[in-house]
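quick one, 290 residues, struct below
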Amino acid sequence: MSALVDAWRSRGGHRELLGQRIFVVEVPATGRVTAPPLLVLHGFPTSSFDFHRVVDALAVERRVVLFDMLGYGLSAKPDRSYRLVDQADLTAALVADLGIDRLGLLTHDIGDSVGGELLARQLEGSWPVEVTDRALANGTLFMDLVQLSAGQQFLEALPDERLAADVLTRDTVVAGLVATFSPAHQVPDDEVAAAWELIAAEDGERLMARHARYIDERRHREQRFTPPVVSHPSPLTVVWGTDDPIAVPAMADRLAAARPDARIVRLDGVGHYPMVEDPLRFVAALSGRG
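---
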């Protein structure tokens, strides 16, 4: 285990949720608490580790809760179908287990869609949690604008089943991940190595075709996932890396037009993973300094 992964593992622990072993990190506020807890939802194909360089800055004035969705990172990785709505069920179970009834949401990538499902439930009255504020980073909000990578298209075309051991190699997965970064940023090698280690834990890379079903789910249920992101009345901050080759800047533009009261921060020279590529600017953007 690499030093970075070992350090991240040591900050959390496992909880049994809906019959599954889920890795959870809780970071208490280090200063005077001014806001309810912040719940962080990560993206595909990585994990909560994406936020390890920003979590302490986020926790200055509020408790921060992060977890690895089922099949990701240090959580259990059963060979089963994976749906965004099931990840929303898991998120709701975690929030209930922690006794949280008011929270802010910080979401990225598929976390934006899981967050959209939670917001839909909250607006319907089936999720009794007050969402006080939201921050959203690069994700596939509007499927007609998505520019799927070659890797995503390859995975989506495969059957919904566990891959053979030699289908995806480290080099293939890492190359696909790095291709989503902006050329303007050189992400440290140990960061990329840690991301791969967490993807591959318990042979998790062999589940990537199963996880990729989210693309089709996202496409067919867009009217469920996206409208709540736009319409939920909680204050919204959008932080968007403008060099993202998949969730292109036009998505942020459309969201800004649909939600004129939102605070939109565009990070030039940053790609799909702003919290990884430029953590200082990401935190500044969330705090209102960017």
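The domain at 3-287 is CATH 3.40.50.1820 (Rossmann fold).
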